[in-house]
Write a structure and sequence with these properties.
Blueprint lengths: L3 H24 L5 E4 L1 H7 L1 H38 L5 H43 L1 H11 L3 E4 L13 H14 L18
Parallel strand pairs: 1-2
């Protein structure tokens, strides 16, 4: 049987969560400035996960391609080294120069692919943030704020003005509710292939 002290303890335990909720609501006073951790937002968003997965797959494919090229060039260099004693100096120099030109050309091509992949990563990220702007704008409007700053550029702030977790939850909710992308079909009703 619970005595008077026990009932006080039970009442205190039951009231603590209500007090915490009220305290959080009280702390969530309108602020003209809100903060957002863009890295955490991007990493926590399911829409961004798809973007990251596609970029990582392309990066892995490029890395595999680089390993194949490196193995082929190593084998070719070894073959050229073994041929050297059997060739005239001018003939070997011509083959060595052609090999060096090939190495430089392949390196430039692979570097260009890596730069294109980085450009694509940056572009996809910009597109993501442009697409989620309405969600952020809604939070700003609800909070009565005037601006959102990247949390990394703020020296000190109260946690109550950080909207990262709220934004992640809303973006994921919107992503889950979005209809799947429709596949293009040809006149005969079969799925079309991209040109």
């Amino acid at each position: 049987m619970i005595g008077p002290r026990g009932w006080l303890l039970v009442a205190a335990v039951l009231l603590v969560p209500m007090w915490q909720v009220k305290a959080q609501e009280a702390l969530r006073v309108p602020s003209p400035i809100l903060t957002l951790d863009q890295e955490r937002l991007f990493a926590g968003s399911r829409a961004a996960e798809e973007i990251s997965a596609a970029i990582e797959a392309a990066a892995a494919q490029l890395a595999a391609e680089n390993r194949v090229i490196e193995a082929e060039l190593t084998a070719e260099e070894l073959e050229l080294t073994e041929l050297r004693p059997t060739l005239a100096p001018d003939e070997f120099r011509a083959l060595a120069d052609a090999f060096d030109e090939k190495v430089q050309r392949l390196r430039a091509e692979q570097d260009a692919k890596a730069l294109e992949l980085q450009r694509r990563r940056d572009q996809e990220r910009q597109t993501f943030f442009r697409q989620i702007t309405p969600v952020l704008a809604e939070i700003v409007r609800e909070r009565g704020a005037l601006a959102v700053l990247d949390r990394r550029s703020v020296i000190l702030s109260a946690d109550t003005i950080d909207i990262t977790e709220e934004a992640v939850a809303r973006i994921n909710s919107a992503f889950d509710e979005a209809p799947p992308a429709e596949e293009e079909t040809t006149p005969d009703g079969t799925a079309g292939q991209e040109p």
